[in-house]
Amino acid sequence: MGKQEFHNAMRILCNIDYSEFYDCMVKAGMDHKKYGNHAWQDFRGNPHDFFIKCSDSMADCLFQIIERRNKAPDRETDDG
User: Fold this and answer.
1) Residue 80: pLDDT band by 50, 70, 90 thresholds?
2) Cα–Cα distances in Å, from 10 out to 1, 18, 35, 58, 70?
3) E strands present in 1-80
4) Which structural domain range is residue 36 located in?
């Protein structure tokens, strides 16, 4: 992963919306009634910190969103 792809991944993480976040909570087995609003507020307050501290299953789901969005076919490469 080059600098541009990493930079874009960090931007994508900051722009994940609530419905995507909620879907990841469900896939990760997080109890929305117990963690829902608190987890969302923590994520919105500092998505990078949340990503580092969350469970592996939550991080995997969030990373799938990043990978899906980061595969723009006409994106510039670090080499050119």
Assistant:
1) very low
2) 12, 17, 24, 16, 10
3) none
4) 3-69
Average pLDDT for 51-78: 84
Which pLDDT score is estimated for 76? 54
Number of domains within the chain: 1
Domain membership flag for residue 62: yes
Evaluate whether residue 56 is within a structural domain. yes
Cα dihedral sign, 30-36-40-43? negative
Question: If pLDDT is split at 50, 70 and 90, which confidence band does 77 have?
Answer: low
Task: Tokens for 51, please give them.
Answer: 């990503």
Domain contains 80:
no
Q: First vs last Cα of the chain: how many Å apart? A: 15
